[in-house]
């Protein structure tokens, strides 16, 4: 009987020792796998996106803004290539670039750009990181539209005898300082050359100062029809 109990005790002890060794080995392997996974650096990728539009928040009824770049270059950095690819496509991206001007007054300011709604695990670097913008009090004024065909758009030996435009008057909106510099509003055709016969087409409006410099303004309409009578010079 004692031998039987002794044998049972030895068997139980062997089973206990085997279970302890198995548990220790399993736990050690699990910890090692975690440590190995944590110690291995995850590969990161960078996707560069050009011409990402900037959303600007400001009081558009009170102020007029100008002198700023409307897009920015964004470097997206992350380890998930699928997410980066999704954010690269403007149709599926979730992030956006904003400049908040609501606390700024009249003047020229340097504003830090904000990256909003980036996916988890994705970082972004911007070029540039700041936006330079001119803020002025909003003002509007009506101007007569003058049609123009320039000499360098004519064929040799030809001149313009008459120019008429479909829109004779237009409202111009800008900041007060810029609006005060507007000398005239021109309707110009940019895609013609060597004209030797009458021309009918579409002209783009531009506001210029006394020196002919184009000014940043907004028109009540951006284009108008134009007709030009071209005549051959007398020899």
TrEMBL record:
PANTHER family with a match to the protein in the record: CDAA REGULATORY PROTEIN CDAR (PTHR37804:SF1)
Protein name: YbbR family protein
């Amino acid at each position: 009987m004692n031998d039987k109990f002794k044998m049972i005790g030895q068997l139980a002890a062997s089973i206990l020792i085997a279970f302890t060794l198995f548990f220790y080995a399993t736990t050690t392997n699990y910890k090692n796998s975690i440590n190995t996974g944590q110690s291995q650096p995850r590969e990161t990728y960078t996707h560069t996106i050009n011409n990402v539009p900037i959303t600007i928040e400001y009081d558009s009824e009170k102020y007029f803004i100008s002198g700023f770049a409307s897009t920015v270059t964004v470097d997206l950095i992350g380890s998930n290539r699928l997410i980066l690819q999704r954010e690269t496509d403007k149709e599926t991206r979730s992030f956006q670039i904003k400049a908040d001007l609501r606390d700024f007054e009249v003047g020229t300011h340097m504003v830090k750009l904000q990256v909003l709604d980036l996916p988890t695990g994705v970082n972004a670097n911007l070029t540039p990181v700041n936006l330079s913008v001119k803020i002025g009090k909003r003002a509007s004024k009506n101007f007569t539209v003058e049609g123009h065909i320039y000499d360098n758009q004519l064929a040799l030996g030809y001149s313009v005898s008459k120019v008429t435009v479909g829109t004779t008057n237009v409202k111009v909106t800008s900041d007060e300082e810029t609006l005060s510099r507007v000398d005239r509003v021109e309707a110009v055709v940019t895609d013609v050359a060597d004209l030797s016969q009458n021309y009918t087409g579409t002209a783009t409006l531009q506001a210029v100062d006394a020196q002919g410099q184009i000014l940043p303004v907004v028109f009540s309409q951006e284009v108008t029809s134009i007709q030009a009578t071209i005549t051959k010079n007398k020899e």
